Amino acid sequence: MHAIDFAGRAVVITGGTRGIGAGIARAFLDAGADVLVCGRSDPGGAVLAAGGRSALRTRADVRDPAQAHRLIREAADSFGRVDVVVSNAGGSPYAEAATASPRFHARIIELNLIAPLHVAQSANAVMQDQAGGGSIIMIGSVSGVRPSPGTAAYGAAKAGLHQLATSLAVEWAPKVRVNSVVAGPVATEAGAAGHYGDAAAQAAVGATVPAGRMATPEDVAGACLFLASPLASYVSGAALLVHGGGERPAYLAAAQRPV
Asked: What's residue 53's pLDDT?
């Protein structure tokens, strides 16, 4: 049995078919939860836990309020309740702010900020009416708490996401807790394919982190398990830093100062 027991609990994870989302789904499955994951395209293969349990899969573009509502309704109908929602779907390709189109910027903000709000609204409607309430977790990014050159709209959206979590935590208390995870660079198959480059580039990125490596999906998943568990029953409106200690300030290197 997992150290934190989620048996009998129902969990929804957006963008849960691969990368960070799939890692979060596996962690909740291993902890005994019933899990529904969604992706914008064909959900593809099964998300399996170590014990062989698998998540239910569905297709949903959570930028569409109707599809976000259907996602939560599907989980409630399948499991009888919705205890935890993890808004993980998001991301952005590299694009310089000076030349990116207005439509590009709008779509990035829609995916990374407005879509989680759609999902949270529908989840809250279910959680407020059930015994025990629920927990909503927003997967944010260090891009929302420091400059994000090349992904400016993404960074702005993630900054807004952290603020959104604090506001919803106040509005929906005490039955629903809302928190965010401020994730640092995470090594995933998507990262290997493009955003962080090849293995050598990822190692170089990891060397900038005090922990000496990039995060793994399992690192982010552990934070989600904590925030969704009774161990965090008094934690709401928090932004949990999962970034390996952050980034070494550039001025230290310029001044040739050891850490």
From this structure: 86
